[in-house]
Amino acid sequence: MIEVSVSVSIARPAEQVWAILGGFDFLPRWVEPIASSRLDDGGRLRRLETADGAVIVERLLEFSDSERQYSYALLESPFPVSDYVGRVAVRDDGAGGAQATWSSRFRSQGVDEVEIAADFEGFYQAGLERLKALVEGQ
User: What is the mean pLDDT of the chain?
Assistant: First the structure.
């Protein structure tokens, strides 16, 4: 099983970060390659479309506003992975700021494990850096 985790420090309270990160339907707000998101199945299924037209379908597994985190499973995507479970979370850093984390675990399907882990790590890093810029720019 491959595990990837990226965190960034954000100089704003966790509540402000969660306001942008925390909705299961909010990825287009802070992940640039995601052009749209549509919820189905009572908000537990999201259908994402990328800027280049690829479709990604994910199921919400757990959601907690009070803990500022949610986890989801990847059901359909162009990525060569299986058994993917992702998680996003925001924590107070104890100094008035926040730590945002995006992590996942999955199995590689026919591609180099180091390469696919690096691809996801780069994607998470870019998303979290954009989140940081958005929140700190408010």
Answer: 95
Contacts of 3 (CB under 8 A, 6+ apart): 103, 104, 105
Tell the residue number behind the tokens 């704003």, with chain if given.
12
The DSSP bridge partners found for residue 37 are 48
**Long-range CB contacts (< 8 A, 24+ apart) of 68-74?**
68/14, 68/17, 68/18, 68/22, 70/22, 70/24, 72/24, 72/46, 74/106
Whether residue 20 contacts residue 28, with contact meaning beta carbons closer than 8 Å, is answered with no
Confidence of residue 98 (pLDDT cuts 50, 70, 90): very high
Q: Does the predicted model carry a pTM greater than 0.70? A: yes
Q: What is the 3-state secondary structure (H, E, C) of 81-92?
A: EEEEEEEEEEEE
134 Cβ contact partners less than 8 Å away, ≥ 6 residues apart: 20, 29, 30
What phi and psi, each to the nearest 5 degrees, are found at residue 42? 65, 25
